[in-house]
User: Which sequence fits this backbone?
């Protein structure tokens, strides 16, 4: 998986964010090129999800009022990507919202 940390800045853990940004870039770069070979490549970008990785910071997450995403919601997004026909997409998963493709803004063209 990637993470919401791959879609935004994470000042308190820049190394983690850089790694997750790399996963997002890999999915966006490989997905379209592999489609012609029948291979789909996507990324799931959950926020703080119920897992062992959050245990050391769980108390801080809960104190901040940030909801922890049930693992089943992340799993449902994975299954939707696995069974759908999309490729090169990065789906964000947040508590209380349906999982969806993150819409990246295009880069403006050069000026003459």
Assistant:
């Amino acid at each position: 998986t990637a993470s919401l940390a791959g879609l935004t800045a994470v000042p308190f853990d820049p190394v983690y964010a850089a790694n997750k940004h790399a996963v997002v870039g890999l999915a966006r770069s490989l997905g379209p090129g592999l489609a012609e070979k029948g291979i789909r490549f996507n990324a799931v970008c959950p926020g703080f999800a119920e897992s062992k990785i959050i245990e050391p910071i769980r108390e801080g997450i809960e104190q901040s009022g940030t909801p922890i995403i049930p693992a089943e919601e992340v799993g449902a997004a994975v299954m939707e990507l696995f069974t759908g026909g999309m490729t090169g997409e990065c789906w964000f998963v947040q508590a209380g919202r349906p999982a969806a493709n993150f819409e990246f803004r295009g880069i403006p063209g050069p000026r003459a």
User: Anything to note?
Assistant: Helices lie at 14-35, 58-64, 71-83.
